[in-house]
Amino acid sequence: MPYHRRAVFSKDVSGLAERHVDRLPDTVSNIRNRRRRIDDESLRLIDDLTNRSLDPMFSDATLVHDRRGPLQVWMSRLLVFFICLAVGLAGTVIVRELHTDPRSKIREKLISQVEAETREYNSTNDKIAKLRSQMDSLSAQVGGDAVNPTADRDNLLNGFTKVEGEGISISLANPIAATDSAGSNDSDNDNIRVITDVDLQQFVSKLWAAGAEAISINGYRVGVQTSVRTAGTTILVGLNSIQSPYMITAIGDTNVLQTDMSSSEQKDLYGTLNKAGIHPQVSKEHMITMSSTAGTPDLSYAKRSE
Fold it and tell me: What PANTHER family does the annotation carry (predicted)?
């Protein structure tokens, strides 16, 4: 055990006896030893990091010399380059696929199907029109061109015959704000009032009530079974899609139609549209030509009454 002697240069050293350091209690010595051991471990870690930063296994690996030739080195570099290039391209493609909207592909597919059905529908209507003209020519050849006033009147009213005459035209267009905000946020577009199928239905109903004999919207004839409705954000006249601006033409008494469809007679309708920035324009037309409706309705339940 450690001990302490008196200093030899003291003048009273000859009269003093030796004094030894008493043994420390076991608890105190254990605490000191434990603290010393903790301090030693910390210092050993610092010493290893400072003086022996390289692991012995890695230091042994440095003894092996690289005996590859320049060709092998450049081939390895090219191989690593192409692998990195392939991984980068694959990651780019994956990121682009993740950022694309999966609904856009479905939407494009549905649009293509609708366009194909529309083309087929138009083609069928053209065939029907050609067959009808052939039937008329054949009837004229065999003497079947006798005038039937009832049939002619029904065909004119139902829209099965091409017609022409004087009338009026009503032009409608969405407000300019709707066009300017087409690329902005959808929440902004929802607050903008645009022309709907209900607005066109109101104009068509009021024209029929005013005495119109034939009506068309953007060149599509409105017959007895022609619907004006909305499919998504598109307005359909029958199966034909139309967009702003909308042109409603009606054949009939020009003065009566213009008076009944003026803003003074239709205050509520025009007032609602004017507040939204929609200003209908009514003008007289000296000659309007309208084609027949797309198809002839098939009567399954209606019969002539006795």
Answer: UPF0749 PROTEIN RV1823 (PTHR37313:SF1), UPF0749 PROTEIN RV1825 (PTHR37313)
